[in-house]
Amino acid sequence: MHYRFECFELHPTARLLRHDQLELEVPRKVFDCLAYLIEHRERAIARDELIDAVWKRSNVSDNQLAHAIAAARRLLGDDGEGQRLIRTVPGFGYHWVGNVDTVAAADIVASPTPLDSDPVDAIQTAPAKATAAPLANPADLPAQARRPTAATATAKANRLRPWLLTSVLLACAAVAVWWSTRADQQAAPTAPSAASIPSQTWVLPGALPDAAESWARIGLMALIAEGLNRQGAAVIPIEKALTRVGDVAADVDLAELARELDAALVVAPRAYQVKQTWVVALAAYGKDSGKIRVDASAGDLLAAGRLAVQRLNQRLRHSGPGLDGSIDETFELISQAIRARDYEGALLQLSRLSDADRHRPEAGLLEVDLELERGQNSAAREKAELWLQRLNASTQPVAYARVLLRKATAMRQLGEADWPGLVDQAIALLQGANSPRDLATAMQLRGIAAYFADKKADAMRDLVRAREMFDEQGDEFRAAKVTGTMGALAVRDGRLGEASLQLAQSAKVLEAYGAIDSLRSNIEWTAYQQVLLLRWADVLRTTDRLRDLLQKAGKTSSYEQSSYLRIRTFALMHLGRLNEAQTLLDEQERAVKRDIQENDLRDRGVDELADIAGQRAWLQLIQHHWERSAATAAAGFSMLQGVATNSVRSVNMQNLLSIVVRAQAGAEPWSESTPMPVLDARQIEILKNATNIDGRVAYAYWNARHGNLEGAEADYRAAFALANATPQNVTYMMVVVEPYTEFLLARKRVRDASQLLNQLLVNSPDLPEQSYEVALLQLRVRMAEGNSSGAKVAARRVLALAGERPLPVDLLPTLEAARNADPSPRH
After folding, report:
1. What is the DSSP letter of 158?
2. Does residue 367 surpass a pLDDT of 90?
């Protein structure tokens, strides 16, 4: 039997723990502790009993047990404070308190039995005589064929499904760095002080009659929220409030709204002018206080707001330090306006600072933050450089380091390569200063830089330490963002079980804080994880949520829009909804071109347009527009030739060339009548030295068509070895198995093709029912085997999954026969 709880499944006999169907890596003692507590959940377990059951010896310290329990809780998204699943029984031991469903063995669907040997190692070469000789073991192949070269290792993260999948991943990587680095340098949103959202205070946006003071809609909201929060109210962060109640009518029934929100108090600010005097009126409704109304007047709008919230606190009998009108308070209000995307309000408040206050480092940092949030990276870089000239690194190390980090962020967005050096400078300054939060932010940035420099051990060390430092400061918001970044990097590496848990843990905190931007990035990575698992319907649902977040965020950059569109377009292509995909591609191209016009994107604009070209070429490939696809991909390649090459662009060039080669092959890539692929000498050299799977596979086809079958086989096998390193990620496998199987079928090596297909289906037997490409491949293999019943089943699946795709010409008779036999599928 096995056990189900929340999104987890624990299989004691198989020693498996899954989260959302993804297998997690669990240390042995941690697994044993979990299994024992769940199996004996009807009672509390004494420490000595648990030690004896797990360690089988008595000389185990309580500290060792505590570490194992803490690790188990982290694995399940639990902790020592909440104790949602594992409760500590003081002075005794531990008790599993979560709800558990027991599933009998008969209810478990067995996985296919793995083959005794690696199917690739068992593939037979085409015989010279009637008998087949075994293919050489991978260890006997040339080194180039056995494993990637040193250059390949640096690009191992780019092992993806042909072109489009790589482009989605690289785009998500840029987004992860963008949101991980830029928002962390501002103050974090005010933490919700209660464990859950109900029974908290909600402040609505301010209502003003004059559009000239529209900035105060958010500014007044932030001021009232801060005044209530300082005197002990559990106030919902304004970012979260804006997503939920940002568009409520000015005359809303506060009592009804409070019941809908399950709020302790709802406050609606309103401001208007009487001659030269500002009046701020606060209407409130509370569960305990009922209706309350206070107002205050002053010559300055914010001064009137401070007086009004002071009177509201008095009516509510709150105590504590109130608002004081200090410059630090003003800076905090500007920061909140930036986070709420009220850029005009933030700019107006910055312009109203006195000359003396405008020359304070805090003002300079806010100016740079504003430019970064608006996507004006060149302006942010220039302002950061100006402030670095004004500041003294020896006497103002913290301020200087903060500006360095912002300059590094701007440079990263502009595609400049030297930004990690600025992070190192910042860390050197902060290590001698008493500013642990800034040091943690810098370490987070250094960890990201190390990851993309293929120093993954260093990256994880920095990221883990950054998260620990944020936790030590009680900053769960930033700690959650680091967890989200680690989840994103786990997706890149194909560690999908670990990624699923980290992204879920991060999203829970980010949503509580109303951090829309960070949450959006987190959800994008969740969508990409679903892409890697070929869960297309899930991808569409997740991108629906992304679209809702973008709409709630209000002002979004065209880059943010195109990032969402890219993922959704990809899912639509694989579902065969090609017309919708075409529409989104056009929308994406318009967004990118608008972004290029509005912002100084430099070379990143070229990257974006090349990305669009790759997606469009792939869509044309699916539509069998062979010549158009080859021309579009070649145009994208030419774009990248015009800018400086870096590791990401190098991979993209390989991917674009792989589309050119595939498109030139046309409808019958292995027919003798199909013309040879045409590339120039430089393009051939790029594919020959390819560092990713797509390039290796394209060069294998090139070799095969030019008569170098041994070289082609070596390249296919080397690509398969890369893909097989992450068996959880079926998409990696599909990149190689599809063209490699077609190569084997073209050589009449049917048995080898069958074994290769089986290797793909061993871990994912449902793939033919989910993926058109897999169903089509299965149909070709079953036909080659002479398995008519299997071919009929596969043909029905192809028809059901085809959508708007044109069907392969060589398979039309078989597919028409299947359609006539079972008229339910429609194409």
Report:
1. G
2. yes
